[in-house]
Amino acid sequence: MTNEFLILVSILLPLAGAVGITITGRRYPNLREAVTLVTAASLAVVVWALLPELLAGERPSVRVAEMLPGLAIEFQVEPLGMIFAALASLLWIINSIYSIGYMRGNNEQHQTRFYVLFAVALSAAMGIAFAGNLLTLFIFYEVLTLSTYPLVAHKGDGKTVVSARTYLGILLATSIGLFLPAIIWTYHVTATLDFTPGGILDGHLAGPAVGLLLALYVFGIGKAAVMPVHRWLPAAMVAPTPVSALLHAVAVVKAGVFTITKVVVYIFGVELLFTETSADWLLFAAAFTVIAASVVALRQTNLKRLLAYSTIAQLSYVVMAVAILKPLSEIGAAIHIVAHAFGKITLFFAAGSIYTAAKKTEIHQLRGIGRRMPWTMAAFTIGALSMIGVPPTAGFVSKWYILAGSFQSDNHVAIVTIIVSTILNSLYFLPIIFYAWFCREEVAPVTDHGEAPLAIVVALTATAALTVLLFLFNQPVLDLASQLGGMPK
Amino acid sequence: MILTNHLPALQVVVPLLVAPLVVLMRVRGLPWAVATTTSLVAFAIAVGLTNTVLDSYSVTYEMGSWRAPYGIELHVTSFSALLLLIVTAASTLTLVAGKQSIDTEIEHDRQPLFYAAWLLALAGFTGIVVTGDAFNIFVFMEIASLASYVLIAAGSDRRVLPAVFKYLIMGTIGATFYLIGVGLIYMMTGTLNLADMEARIHEVGELRPILVAAGFITLGLILKAAIFPLHAWLPLSYTYAPHIVTAFLAACSTKVALYVLLRFDFLVFQQNLPAHEVQFTVFLMPLAVLAILIASGVAVFERNLKGLLAYSSLAQVGYILLGASLVSVPGLTAGLMHMFNHALAKGTLFLAVACLGMRFTRLGLVNLSGVARQMPWTMAAFVLAGLSLIGVPGTAGFISKWMLISAALQEGALGVALVAVIVVSSLLAVVYIWRVIELAYFGDPTEASQLANEAPAWLLVGTWVAALMNIYFGIIPSFPLSLARESAASLLQHLP
Fold first, then answer.
1. Is B430 on the interface with A (CB under 8 A)?
2. Closest to B442 (Cβ–Cβ): which among A153, A184, A187?
3. pLDDT in tens, chain A (489 residues)
4. Which of A63, A249, A311, B117 could cross-link A345 (Cys pair, CB 3.0–4.6 Å)?
5. Cβ contact B426–A153 (<8 Å)
């Protein structure tokens, strides 16, 4: 099989899976789950099969159609996209296992629709990861938004639908109102939209226009949740936990920061942004979001909302790392996409596990829960430590690189932000861990529960293990990340 | 072959002659079969003409071998070919797919008259497009309009009657204005042949009557094309007309009026009136912008599905006009492309409405709540066409919107403002299409939508053919693009 073929397969396979799930879904739930798992596993195989050639320096690409000159639907595998695709396809397998436990454990409705749309979202994520130009990326970006809307609105009651509308409204409005004009502007000045190492805008745009265009991109890519376009993320907390995991770890927010990274590296080019002072605001915006979101997280009493604000902060870590514009920090950004995904999916899995077993959602209810659910809380602890950046977890690796990059350019804003946010992270995560392990239950729970269903425990153990493993074996990600084109040495 | 030389005439004559015959056919199903076959023949002729035009630039035909300017001259250019394709394809597809829908809405004994009116409308529209004679255009415009009134009035809802009366009055005013304009030009030049007019106005010393004529003609045609603020006849007529009629008319009727408008302004007046392109822009661009913004805004709050789509049509006509009012080749190309693409999108949407109309007597949005569960194919086609209407990449609508934005950006600061208008109205389109999708897919099923089952297969097939064309021409737009480019270039050849 040629690589071009593999690229197309990686996008079509989840869609085929969606069809299979639809057909089997009505009558045979077990078969339906099997289809999901098989599709997820084969997708991972397909994506990982592209890896060797990529590491050898090849950039396989395939052009599907060219509508107008310079305006094509085209895919190309490059290191950053590979990281995203490999991450998403790997986590889909684990998330599917978890979903089975969660959806059955909570007797959720419309399970077939859930699995179908999940598969469609994964197809969109693959399209985003392998997009060879901005237009292709934009198409799949919108598909991802639309396919996740019903997932967020899964419960279907009034409150959920209102929240889901906020989700859809913000993401669609920013993407059409800002992202698309930015793409049009780019096309207008450069007559191309291809992702090119070193960027395409250099020499075509200068002065304040660069900063303005960057603003259109950063706020237009609402999925990256840079303040003030972050509101959709807490709103989406009404979704079932596997969907939250999809949003926060597997695909959606990762697609956002991935797109911003790609735009900075392959459209603007690091050189251009480095010399252009009008683009400096991005660092401050990201730093502000990191601190502000962490402060808001401190005040949350609901576990999932706390995690949501933590995600907003962590996303801006990636954006900030990109904005530092140093090779080491760009590598840090790429690793942080992976590290945060592993850590945050573990945290969400744990939150969902607690909900499934104990029906608890508030932080103050978690006293002494560590004794009843040791596996869950152990995984939660690992995830939380990774968020703070304590070794031996993945979060430490990425923070290390981002910090190294900031020191490289003597970027005091970034250094201070990282230190302050680490303190804030500890302040909101450590009390939960302390309550869970070292306090006694104030009132005995209604039902004498133990751990969540096996599928859930297996999944969250796996992601917790990944979080630790990434600390130990981060060489493959590092290799890929250091291949990012167009870095000034 | 001899027959191929007569294609421009046959394009009009065939439906015109078959129409009275259809009235006489009393056998059930026969009128439909004959009308559909005739429409298919018309489509084939249009395809033949397009082929010729693509080879040899344009075709002229002298009616009864009378030399122009004394006789009537038919003149088929790439621009006419584009319109001919839109009109005949819309008619054929809606007729082929729509038999069951028409059967449920129109009693059998009235059907011969209905199909006769349909063919007359077809003859009228194609006649307007092929003829090169200003008065001939008026005649065909009247034929098409009168037939349209009849078609619309065939709707089963009694509220159609005031709606069609309104259309009749407004349409007549529009046609009269056009006629006054043509009369003034005839007074000054003594000719009715468009090509001849163009040359002879040149010799006229006093241009004021020509300017007045330009005003009358532009105004009359704006009324016919339902451009804001002269659009009042359109929404109600489209809402209460039989569904298949709405699909047919929405795809082509306003575009034919725009066709005449563009031919007059760019071919007849452009060379002869000083700074005509400036006047054209100054007068029409604000109207186009208002149409785009206001009609999209109204569509957001519209409660009836067909009304919603009708208002959306008004906005889309605004896009076409906006492209033309840039008076540049890229702008006009984008406008013409949008004619084609909007016909595709709106035709599909109204065909999907016809599918829904088979199962629902009322098409208020609330009635359709939860319908997607029972009619998944219908709603999927609706979604596809809706995406095209919004202009999502990968659909036909995207191509023309992208070209329109590119063309606007060449105009500097004004262009940026126009891009903002287009973006805002696209967002509004997202909202109004999404309202339908959200209700249909996530709303609680009403009693009616629980009982509904999927539309008849044949109607669905037609709808899906149209829906897939939206995708096809969104990915491979080269065919309409070449026609549109050539048309724009020939319309603007006289520009400095």
1. yes
2. A153
3. 577 888 888 889 999 988 888 888 778 888 888 888 999 999 999 988 888 888 877 788 888 888 887 788 889 888 888 888 988 998 898 888 888 888 887 777 788 888 888 899 999 999 999 998 899 999 899 889 988 888 888 887 778 888 888 888 899 889 888 998 899 889 888 888 888 888 888 888 888 888 899 999 999 998 888 888 888 888 888 888 888 888 877 788 889 989 998 998 889 888 888 888 888 888 899 999 999 999 999 888 888 888 889 999 999 988 998 888 888 888 888 889 889 999 999 998 898 888 888 888 888 888 888 888 888 899 999 999 999 988 888 889 888 888 888 888 888 888 999 999 999 999 989 988 888 888 887 777 667 777 778 888 888 899 999 888 888 888 877 877 777 754 433
4. A249
5. no
Please indicate if any CB of chain B lies within 8 Å of the CB of A187.
yes
Q: Where are the domains of chain B?
A: 278-496
CA distances from A194 to A47, B391, B482 (A): 22, 21, 25
Q: Is A206 on the interface with B (CB under 8 A)?
A: no
Taking the Cβ of residue B441 and every Cβ of chain A, the question of whether any pair is shorter than 8 Å is answered with yes
Interchain proximity B423–A172, CB inside 8 Å: no
Q: Is the dihedral of CA A302, A305, A310, A313 positive or negative?
A: negative
What is the pTM for the complete model shown? Answer: 0.87
C-alpha B178, offset from chain centre: 19
Partners of residue A153 in chain B, C-beta under 8 Å: 442
User: Which site among A26, A68, A120, A172 would you substitute to test the B interface, given the most B Cβ atoms closer than 10 Å to its Cβ?
Assistant: A68
Give A47 to chain B, closest Cα distance, Å: 24
User: Could B430 and A67 be called an inter-chain contact, meaning their C-beta atoms sit closer than 8 Å?
Assistant: no
A150 lies within 8 A of chain B by CB = yes
Question: Residue B60: helix, strand or coil by DSSP?
Answer: strand
- Tokens 């294609």 -> residue: B7
Counted across chains A and B, CB pairs separated by less than 8 A come out at 51
Interatomic CA distance for residues A233 and B467, integer angstroms: 34
Which tokens sit at B265? 């302004």
